[in-house]
Amino acid sequence: MKTLALFDAKNYDIDSFEKLNNGRYKITYYDTKLTMDSVSLAKDKDAVCCFVNDNINKEVIDKLVEYGIGVLLLRCAGYNNVDIEYAKDKLKILRVPAYSPFAVAEHAFALLLTLERKIHKAYLRTREFNFELSGLTGHCLHNQTVGIIGTGKIGQCFAEICKGFGMKILAYDPFPNFDLGYEYVSLDRLISESKIISLHCPLTEGTYHIINKENIEKMQDRVVIINTSRGGLIDSKALLEGLENGKIRGAGLDVYEEESDLFFEDNSHRVDIDDNIRLLISLPNVVLTAHQGYLTYEALYNIAETTLGNLDAYLKGEELVNEVKA
Length: 326
Ligand code: NAI
Known about the structure:
Blueprint: E1 3-6, H1 11-21, E2 26-29, E3 47-50, H2 58-66, E4 71-74, H3 84-87, E5 92-94, H4 101-117, H5 119-127, E6 145-149, H6 153-164, E7 168-172, E8 183-184, H7 187-193, E9 196-199, H8 213-218, E10 223-227, H9 236-244, E11 248-253, H10 275-282, E12 286-288, H11 297-316
Parallel strand pairs: 1-2, 1-3, 3-4, 4-5, 6-7, 6-9, 7-8, 9-10, 10-11, 11-12
Residues 77-78, 98, 101, 104, 149-155, 172-175, 200-203, 206-207, 228-230, 254-255, 291, 293-294 line the site of 1,4-dihydronicotinamide adenine dinucleotide.
């Protein structure tokens, strides 16, 4: 039986993979991320599977190749954590391009609604039988202009939800899809005219810190920023500054640029957590979740099904429809 080392495995991953594997492969689950320190656990395995914050750099790729492993299964859509260029002709990289764009888009909208209606504050108050309403006045989303950066699968789902709320949509994408009927504008116009900005583009060299000090200065006063894509899209220092000086009214974040050392683990005992995230979390107008946008039963099922299907296709020498190419 072929063997698979599955890294960064949490109980919810194990549940879905065990249900769908059905004895097909011998899967060994490792709680640790796949890094240079843990790569030796992949020795003698036929394939490895990892997640968004595992660091697949040149050294890790060389080790996997040395162990005779020919395929790396990403159980996620994004692949900014893999040195794709270096992996070319050495290691096949397969991903799950779409497991539930609805899951992430709905989470982005949940962050927006939470901020705009101050649900996070109300929840804490009512738990203590404090039913006072002062300080909880919100904003209607109806008629607000939302700027959507990236109109791929998740961006489109998010736009459909926004339409349902009667919001005006501005979109920016270097590869616009005019069939969608959105008003595509330049990034500059989107940045300067939107009351709410939601990020749905991948993290690449071109999108790194797309939300930076300069762009924040061009934004509407009291703008709301939602990021469920990748932390590196936002310069978190500039975001913090904008939140502190009131330019930004609220931020809903499911990702953080330094999340790889923090997210998916209980860090409540740590005293060495970086100042930026400490400050962000301490602000009343920031709602932060730890990369859980994808985390629905439906998405976990689809992730396990596609990942195992990717491995089937690789081992049978079939066409690799989900291959990431440099
Ligand atoms: P997709 O590939 O369907 O769409 C991405 C869109 O971004 C494409 O239309 C592309 O043309 C556009 N784009 C590329 N460069 C751009 C730029 N410079 N500016 C604006 N748009 C640009 O990807 P999908 O499935 O919609 O996912 C989007 C992102 O969501 C992923 O890259 C990933 O980072 C993130 N994600 C987050 C999850 C979470 O749990 N929080 C789960 C899954 C994905």
